[in-house]
Amino acid sequence: MKYGLIAAGQGSRLVADGITTPKPLIQVGGETLLGRLCRIFCENGAESISVIINEEMREVYDYIMKIKLPIPLNLVVKSTPDSFHSFCELMPFLQEKKVDTGVEYGKDGLDSNGKFCLTTIDPIFQEKEFASYIRRFQEDDEHDALMGVTDYIDDEKPLYVKTDAETLQITGYANESYEGCRFISGGIYCMNQQALALLLEAKEAGVQRMRGFQQYLVDAGLKLQAWAFSKVIDIDHAADIEVAERLLAK
């Protein structure tokens, strides 16, 4: 399975809290966020990892250039307006066909089934749960996407996920809470090539954010299912680092 990692944000809320370390290099549980995810991806069958960072992240670029992995590590350096546009930049590396990346740090390969996992840089979760999540999607021949969600809601602007109560089929998304709401998005996405094929179409249709793209998939008739993590902590503020440390210490 291929993995994509969106690490191109500015981390402005962390900066406002006095954190000067670039978000991908913040340490939680003795590892940088970037290094932790690369390790976890490798431990869960990664055949390549593709990362996007913004043009101002020289320190992060230098860090990535020193990473040694047993698989290709593809790097895109480009500033984008949001995570959806970052996803678009990673698209060539996540496609099923072989792509000559032309980047300094390796070339992408063939994917056996066209499935991939995409995450933002800052979700902190239990590793055993992530492994179960990946196995579930690898075994799933029914759904086009398996979206990581959580009922732990501690986010300033969460994306609420509408699901069927019994099957956890995703029926839509909402920016505001509603009666009977159970889950929010965890920033962890498993998709197949059918979902990826709609990415540029959605961009041309004016979709601006990942939450808009997820709704676009539902509206297009693709089959999305939620997979519940017990907790996903997003590292948006300095206080979140301590909360994440406690989660990993359990």
Description:
The strands form three sheets. Strands 1, 4, 5, 6, 8, 9, 10, 11 and 12 form a nine-stranded mixed beta sheet that branches. A two-stranded antiparallel ribbon has the order 2-3. The protein is an alpha/beta fold and 250 residues long. It has helices at 12-16, 33-43, 58-65, 83-94, 127-139, 193-196, 199-204, 210-219, 238-249, and strands spanning 2-7, 27-28, 31-32, 48-53, 73-77, 116-120, 123-124, 145-150, 160-163, 170-174, 183-191, 224-229, 233-234. The radius of gyration is 17 Å and the shape is globular. Mean pLDDT is 91; it is low at 99-112. It has one domain (2-249): Alpha-Beta Complex (Spore Coat Polysaccharide Biosynthesis Protein SpsA, Chain A), CATH 3.90.550.10. The protein is built from nine helices and 13 strands. A hairpin with a 6-residue loop joins strand 9 and strand 10 (170-174).
Task: Give a concise summary.
The protein has a single domain (2-249), classed as Alpha-Beta Complex (Spore Coat Polysaccharide Biosynthesis Protein SpsA, Chain A), CATH 3.90.550.10. The chain has helices spanning 12-16, 33-43, 58-65, 83-94, 127-139, 193-196, 199-204, 210-219, 238-249, and strands at residues 2-7, 27-28, 31-32, 48-53, 73-77, 116-120, 123-124, 145-150, 160-163, 170-174, 183-191, 224-229, 233-234.
